[in-house]
């Protein structure tokens, strides 16, 4: 099984490589050679996929593939380049999309693959446009296509997110026992998947005709509240029980909308998606990594690579807590 991965050394793609190796695949990865490479026994092609002419010429020279997995296609022009490069040259094309294609404003959970896609970010809208191009190519008989829509995926090579976004200070705030802001009442729902688990789903879809022309959510097995997420993350890394401070999303957006854009687009909504379809068609996909162990491995990697910023480097969260608690005390005083 000859498989090409566009990307290949990133967070999810490293998990795919590991699972494909377990399947005995002959793997080639295409990337610029800038990302820390943790892969063994894999063939490397170097290049920038955005240099469309060079990329397509190089792909034409590589011959045919049993499968191509594109992990880093974000825009329709990149999707068009993939079609020029691979239609007629690969038996199965897998596109990594995202659950951000749904927009998450729907009130019914879990989100299914049939839930209407109403993205409200450029990222989500562009991924939908890519999905549509690939599905059209499938309908026209140009290529067998499968679409995966991961939700939050973490693991070594990535970050530990929090309810407000991707701040690199989160782990140090937990370790120092500083207050942690969580939006709303902390009851928003969330699902996190471990990168190597997700990799198994992609790897076992390769070559499976049942998956041709289909789109799949591929998400973690557990649904937790953001309060639980925060407490479990702290416990997993040996940090003290966190003092969680609940604040309305609207307050945070009023203070600094650009800073909290991820909260506005993603984290303020329930992030709950069904795995039923992928587990029906790719039964090997069984999220197995316990969250606590996954987060310990991720934080160990972040420590080794200097990816954890000291809490002092970003005083905004402490200032927000102080302002919110001062406002609450003042309001309570006035109403007494
Ligand atoms: N992680 C999540 O929570 C999450 C959630 C939903 C969807 N996704 C989707 O997952 C995908 C990202 O997967 P990932 O985590 O495996 O990848 P990643 O961490 O984004 O890694 C990127 C890979 O692509 C290579 N690369 C980046 N720019 C390149 C370019 N211009 N030309 C050639 N190679 C390039 C990188 O190597 P070099 O730097 O060496 O080039 C690396 O191998 C995206 O499609 C994203 O939408 C992720």
If you had to describe this structure to a student in words, what would you say it looks like?
The chain is elongated. By secondary structure, it is of the alpha/beta class. Helix 2 (52-61) packs parallel to helix 3 (76-86), helix 3 runs parallel beside helix 4 (122-139) and helix 7 crosses helix 11. It has helices spanning 11-22, 52-61, 76-86, 122-139, 170-176, 195-205, 226-236, 249-256, 261-267, 276-281, 291-304, 316-335, and strands spanning 2-6, 26-31, 43-46, 67-70, 93-96, 145-150, 153-154, 180-183, 189-190, 193-194, 214-218, 224-225, 244-247. The protein binds NADP nicotinamide-adenine-dinucleotide phosphate. NADP nicotinamide-adenine-dinucleotide phosphate is lined by residues 7-13, 31-35, 48-50, 71-72, 96, 98, 150-153.
What is this structure, in a nutshell?
With 336 residues, this protein is an alpha/beta fold. The chain has 12 helices and 13 strands. It has a domain at 2-155 and 192-218: NAD(P)-binding Rossmann-like Domain (Rossmann fold, 3-Layer(aba) Sandwich), CATH 3.40.50.
Keywords, separated by commas or semicolons:
single chain, 336 residues, elongated, Rossmann fold, alpha/beta, 7-stranded parallel beta sheet, two-stranded parallel sheet, 12 helices
Topology (elements, then pairings):
Elements: E1 2-6, H1 11-22, E2 26-31, E3 43-46, H2 52-61, E4 67-70, H3 76-86, E5 93-96, H4 122-139, E6 145-150, E7 153-154, H5 170-176, E8 180-183, E9 189-190, E10 193-194, H6 195-205, E11 214-218, E12 224-225, H7 226-236, E13 244-247, H8 249-256, H9 261-267, H10 276-281, H11 291-304, H12 316-335
Parallel strand pairs: 1-2, 1-4, 2-3, 4-5, 5-6, 6-11, 7-10, 8-13
Antiparallel strand pairs: 9-12
Helix pairs in contact: 1-6, 2-3, 3-4, 7-11
Residues 7-13, 31-35, 48-50, 71-72, 96, 98, 150-153 line the site of NADP nicotinamide-adenine-dinucleotide phosphate.
């Amino acid at each position: 099984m000859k498989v090409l991965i566009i990307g290949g050394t990133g967070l999810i793609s490293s998990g795919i490589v590991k699972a494909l190796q377990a399947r005995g695949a002959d793997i080639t990865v295409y990337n610029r050679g800038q990302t820390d490479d943790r892969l063994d026994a894999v063939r490397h092609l170097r290049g920038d996929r955005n240099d469309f002419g060079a990329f397509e010429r190089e792909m034409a020279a590589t011959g045919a593939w049993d499968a191509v997995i594109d992990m880093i296609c974000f825009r329709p022009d990149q999707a068009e380049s993939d079609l020029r490069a691979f239609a007629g040259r690969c038996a199965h094309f897998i596109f990594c999309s995202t659950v951000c294609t749904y927009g998450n404003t729907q009130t019914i959970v879990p989100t299914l693959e049939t839930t209407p896609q109403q993205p409200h970010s450029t990222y989500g809208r562009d991924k939908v446009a890519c999905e549509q191009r690939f599905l059209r190519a499938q309908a026209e008989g140009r290529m067998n296509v499968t679409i995966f829509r991961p939700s939050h995926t973490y693991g070594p090579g990535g970050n530990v997110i929090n309810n407000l976004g991707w701040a690199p200070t989160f782990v140090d705030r937990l370790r120092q026992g500083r207050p942690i802001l969580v939006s709303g009442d902390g009851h928003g729902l969330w699902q996190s998947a471990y990168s190597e688990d997700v990799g198994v789903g992609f790897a076992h879809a390769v070559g499976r005709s049942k998956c041709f022309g289909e789109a799949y959510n591929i998400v973690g097995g557990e649904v937790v509240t953001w309060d639980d997420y925060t407490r479990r993350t702290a416990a997993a890394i040996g940090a003290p029980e966190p003092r969680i401070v609940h604040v309305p999303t609207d307050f945070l957006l009023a203070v600094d909308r650009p800073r909290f854009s991820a909260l506005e687009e993603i984290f303020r909504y329930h992030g709950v998606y069904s795995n039923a379809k992928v587990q029906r068609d790719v039964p090997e996909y069984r999220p197995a990594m316990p969250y606590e162990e996954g987060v310990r491995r991720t934080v160990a990697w972040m420590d080794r690579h200097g990816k954890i910023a000291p809490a002092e480097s970003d005083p905004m969260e402490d200032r927000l807590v102080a302002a919110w608690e001062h406002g609450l005390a003042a309001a309570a005083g006035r109403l007494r």
